[in-house]
Design a protein that fits this description.
The protein is α+β, with helices and mostly antiparallel strands. Helices cover 20% and strands 31% of the residues. It has helices at residues 2-15, 54-72, 80-96, 99-110, 141-149, 272-275, 300-306, 392-402, 434-437, 470-473, and strands at residues 38-43, 152-153, 163-169, 175-181, 186-193, 199-208, 211-212, 228-237, 242-254, 257-270, 283-286, 314-318, 329-333, 347-350, 359-361, 364-367, 370-371, 378-381, 388-390, 405-406, 411-414, 421-425, 428-432, 438-441, 450-453, 455-457, 465-468, 477-481, 486-490.
Length: 493
Amino acid sequence: MQLSIVFAVLLACILHSTPSDAIPARARHQTQAKPRMVTMPLKRLYVPRTDVHPQLLLQQHINRGNKRLARMTGRSEPAEHELRAEMHKRMYILESGSANASSATTEARSNFSRRHSRHSKPVTGAATNASSTGTGGGVSPLDIQAAENGGLTAANKPTANNTLGLAIDADDVGYIATILIGTPPQNFNILMDSGSADFWVGSETCQSQQGTCGNHTFLGSKSSSSFVQSNQNFNVTYGSGAVAGVLCQDNVNMAGLQLNNHTFGVANQETVQFSADTVPFDGLMGLAQSTLSNEKVPTPVESLASQGLISSAISSFKISRLADQLNDGQVTFGGLDATKFVANTLVTIPNVNKIGFWEGAMDAITVNGQDSGMTGRTAILDTGTTLIIAPPADTLAIMTMLGGQCDTQQCTIPCTSNASVALSFGNASFAIDPRDMALLPVDVNDPTGDCTAGIQAGTIGTNTEWLVGDVFLKNAYLSVDTQNNQISLAKLS
């Protein structure tokens, strides 16, 4: 009975928690004459997290991906009771499954009381005690450690002009940069999301279900003399959490590019997914097209372009993988960083989405070079989604070709799989590293057993639409161009 009560409390917490426990990097503020491009390094810093079993966090990513796909395709989101049912099933597996899994669950329960404290500090090089393994050797101890403990890894110093780094949360689940807002300027840690189009930070008057909005940096007239609040309301609902507030104007500096009197949102109300002390970011920047914006204002990259600070409203992503230990992730505004991709592999395709997401047609989907026979598929490319969410029939077909399987709970593949899935855009094939397809051992003490797959089935959307997140995007350079309404992809250098 006591165990059931603990699981019920843990379930409630998971359903209202954020997947990103990042502490963003410090932005490089370097002013250049007539800058035409801005690049921000993607960084990763470590904050230990032992409050939640990794498999429960994984189910949260699946639920979040399904909700995001429903919004993106204009369909009803899964009901709360359906999401709770999926989490219950995941918890049942942990409770009644292998004995090996119970130790991690017990540790999570014992650390549950520390869930809402933010005492952890970034630990430089926290991952150095665990080494990465190559493909075929099972899941890297580095990834298992990050999945169990959480934390962020700092990006290296940017390699291009006008660059902000992105911090990587845990085992490659989120990306955060640091920008300056207000007078005097304050550092704000911002989650970068190509799957939405609203930019907001917390207000000095912010409230949540827990009272205040936690241990974050806030914006308002007390902290910024250049802050001007309007009476225009906004609200945004994400795959995980929601915010509501008013529009404001203030000065925003991104990698040395100054947007004076920029219009964006300050959130007076945040759900716990954003307000909790354990949430390491202070706001979110959507980098889809502003036609999607609930605030009905230009995105920061669109404003940079309209003011001539960058040549075009382009956002380009190099997303880093923890297991590689390169820590070279970054986002570039106004162009592409040619040092991050192979020039002759660059392809450009039209954006086929009509409402503002970045969606491209897929030419083919292959496994080990064998064509799956799937045609007419499209992919919404979303840095804010960890997994790939595909229609159930497509997912099952891919899993069969991979030698994996799907049940009512999840899809799994052997952790030692060397099979390569490739998505083709613009007649160019982009292979997914096998390490990204084998996300996490079902039993964390058996890294060569069965692993949760990087592709999972979505129960909503059409039978041709995929939501393609970081599992794929770690394997390609992504650039999105608002002015020309097009997407570019290239193989990484």
